Amino acid sequence: MIIEGELAPDDVVTTIEADHIDLRAPGMPLVVFFYREAGSPASTDLVRDFDDKHYEFDAVGVRVVGVGVDGPERTGMFAASCGLRYQLADDASRELCRAFGVLDAADNRPHPTTFMIDVDGVVRRVFAGVPPFGHALDVVDDAREFWG
Q: Could you tell me the fold of the domain covering 1-6+45-130?
């Protein structure tokens, strides 16, 4: 797994809206979080937890992107059903999951993990095994500390 202080993977995240984010030059602080399965109760709670903090992330100039592996159509339907104000990206190939080191070999899904990446592509904070509720507040607090 990528650890704090390392460069983010040399990769580009493409959101379901077709925005491209260079992880090593994101243009603004970036939070990338991985969820296990679109529509599952835990993943729904996690993406909504981040959505509830949307304005707080905006206030400190942090972009949030959630990453799943369910295919672009299902990921898009998931985002729409949750009414998210930030973007999701689909990693059906699992390449991004492998690059970050979060892929669970047993079921080929990502471990719920969050990475905070600065404008230079350096991973500032890693949260592994994140809970579905309350986690986004911890990330916002760290974002304020780093970039607020």
A: Glutaredoxin (3.40.30)
Q: Tokens in use for 61?
A: 């100039």
Q: Residue 13: what are its φ and ψ, rounded to 5°?
A: -90, 130
pLDDT at 102: 98
Sign of CA dihedral 54, 145, 44, 121: positive
| Rounded Cα–Cα distance for residues 109 and 71 (Å) | 12
Rg, Å, the chain Cα set: 14
Enumerate residue ranges in the chain where pLDDT < 70: none
pTM of the model: 0.97
Residue closest to 10 by CA, chosen among 24, 20, 21, 25: 24
Q: Which amino acid is at 56?
A: E
Q: How far, in Å, CA of 6 to CA of 38, rounded?
A: 29
Q: How many CB atoms lie within 10 A of CB 25?
A: 11
Q: Give the residue extent of every domain in the chain.
A: 1-6+45-130
The DSSP secondary structure of 48-91, one letter per residue, reads: HHHHHTHHHHHHTT-EEEEEE-S-HHHHHHHHHHHT-SSEEEE-
pLDDT of residue 138: 97
